[in-house]
Amino acid sequence: MTTHSTAPVDDASPLAPSSSEKPHVLIIGAGIAGLTLGGLLHKAGVPFDIFEKAPVPRTVGSALFLGPDLYGYMKQAGIYEEFVSRSIPCNSIEYFGEDRKVDFVVDFTPYSEMGGCEGRIIGRTQLYDILLNAIPTERCHMGMKMVSMTQHDPATGKATVKFADKSEFSGDIIVGADGAYSAVRQSLYDELKAEKKLPSSDAADLPFSVICVAGYTSPMDTAKFPGLKEERSQFWNVLSRDKPYSVN
Description:
The chain is α/β, with parallel strands linked by helices.
């Protein structure tokens, strides 16, 4: 078993790092949320490690709309210019009925005016690539499946995460960014259940009520599809009248 640890904690406060050192953050999950936090910690000079159970970064996903409320983070993280170069402005969403007639339009222009920047559409894989490249390679550990964690080790005052390969990492803060079926959340639930403090609503199985089918094309010829030359993205949503389906 391999054990990794951070610097020793302050003897005067066994459950927290000393005031002269920054806490070491262990992030479980290298999705959009985990990478976003990692990028911000990197810029702030806070030590961190990200652990992802997948052996390689995932490259699937649809497009995302990001508004100006996120651009402050992007500028602080030093990725705003690259984000702009790899995304397209989007100032509205048109909603259609099944008869393909416009029902209503959501106009983001006032939102953009108040925020000082336009909303933009970017492919999830493009955004993931930007966030991943902003983090030192050695801080992101792939193929690391978490199996359990300890919030406070009485002997060291550290939080510890154990992985399927028998390795362990210790730090000061554990962040669960590992999705709907979070191993971090489940570990917390196991502790609460043992103490008979887990609410019945949390003990129930996670409801599965949404099915998403995503279609992707290969790069398309703009001569045949001139709409792709437009500087702004067109976002359309078709809502069915009496069925629980929509098409974006």
